[in-house]
Design goal:
This protein is 36% helix and 16% strand. The chain is an alpha/beta fold. The strands form two sheets. Strands 1-2-5 form a three-stranded parallel β-sheet. A hairpin with a 6-residue loop joins β3 and β4. The longest helix has 13 residues.
């Protein structure tokens, strides 16, 4: 018996459609991160980018539990003195709802070249319309 070694040529990528409407942010992000990494595939290896492309719709309708809607803060710094910007969850979801899901998923991926390649396969949209309908429909037809 020999060990099955997976090469980059053998990886087949599908398209997953995820509806974030009324989904809890952290639970949704863990599921998306697992699909992006390829952990749901039977031939998963941690050293290759085996994940599928993920399209998330209705990002503006994602939910958080407890008081996080008013107390959770997102920070960023410009690199200049006094450049710290703090924004609360409810403000950010009004201004840029895609950033919330992207930020949560990015924190669950590896912090290296592999993680940067994985996050590029995530496509988040605030509403239900997206330009990847053809790819998602082709995947559903082959099932």
């Amino acid at each position: 018996m020999s060990t099955n070694v997976v090469s980059a040529r053998e990886i087949k990528r599908d398209w997953q459609l995820v509806d974030a409407k009324n989904a809890v942010l952290g639970r949704l992000a863990t599921d998306i991160a697992a699909v992006l990494m390829g952990k749901k595939k039977p031939n998963y290896v941690p050293y290759l980018d085996m994940g599928d492309n993920v399209v998330v719709v209705n990002a503006a309708k994602v939910k958080v539990t407890g008081n996080k809607a008013t107390e959770k803060k997102y920070t960023r710094h410009s690199g200049y003195p006094g450049g710290l910007r703090v924004e609360k969850f409810d403000e950010l979801i009004e201004r840029k709802p895609e950033a919330i899901i992207t930020h949560a998923v990015k924190g669950m991926l590896p912090k290296n070249k592999l993680g940067r390649a994985m996050i590029k396969k995530l496509h988040v949209f605030a509403g239900s319309d997206h330009p990847f309908k053809k790819m998602v429909e082709e995947k559903e037809e082959t099932k």
